[in-house]
Amino acid sequence: MDRAELLSRCTFPPAGTSVVCGVSGGADSLALLVLATAAGCRVTAVHVDHGLRPGSADEAEVVAAAARRYGAAFRSDSVAVVPGPNLEARARAARLAVLGHDAALGHTADDRAETVLVNLLRGAGLDGLAGIRPGPRHPILSLRRGETVALCRAEGLEPVHDPSNLDPSFVRNRVRHEVLPLLADVAGRDVVALLDRQADLAADASDHLRSEAQAVEVTDARALRASPPAVARVAIREWLRADHPERHPPDAATVERVLAVARGEAVATDVGRGRRVRRSAGRLALVASDVPTGLG
Fold it and tell me: Kindly report the CA angle at 295 between 294 and 296, in degrees rounded to 5?
């Protein structure tokens, strides 16, 4: 496995830059560690133990050993995530709280394709259909999962295998193990590459709409009404997601309800997370749900 060829497709910062890498011990994250150190970055490998299965704490030693071998610093942190609804989202939020939002993650092109399909099933707009964005947070996004496995094999690394990755109760696992193989069979081609190209197109379109939306005064009901609907929707989505810890956008139904308020079809509407958007004297305001609506 040619490290130089893999590195040519990665987006690591310049040599000497300090980089925190989230390393679970799986093939993707171990490959991230190997390539980040090969790129000359000053790497700190961080393992986060969610405590969701027996023996998970032992996986930290796999990461610690790899960090020592490749000259990276290491630390391990434990977080409390109890089983229950929205487990994936809660575990991800806990992990990011430890890693920080600038940490490099081991997502690959396969992860991006899966994310596009998962977001499509959730009814996402263009931003969701762009999937995971390339950049410093996702430096190995152009690599395929098979390549990270091959790199670990070539380096003599034994990745940790997380049994939850086979659990069909998680939508992403069914997309990975059932939907993508079926789509590849139907299409007679590698649909991961196809979905990644579509994600790039969606990202370009989404970025253009976002730049147009920045010129819209989102709290001005008249300005929203005068804007093309696609631009107005993006302006509202960006406004409502600004204070979200992970910048998750509201769903399409919520955006449409806010548009209805701007058009004068409603005085106020709930937008989730204990908040409402209300209209008064032609202006929109984001307020706590227990604030009296008043008149529009």
Answer: 130
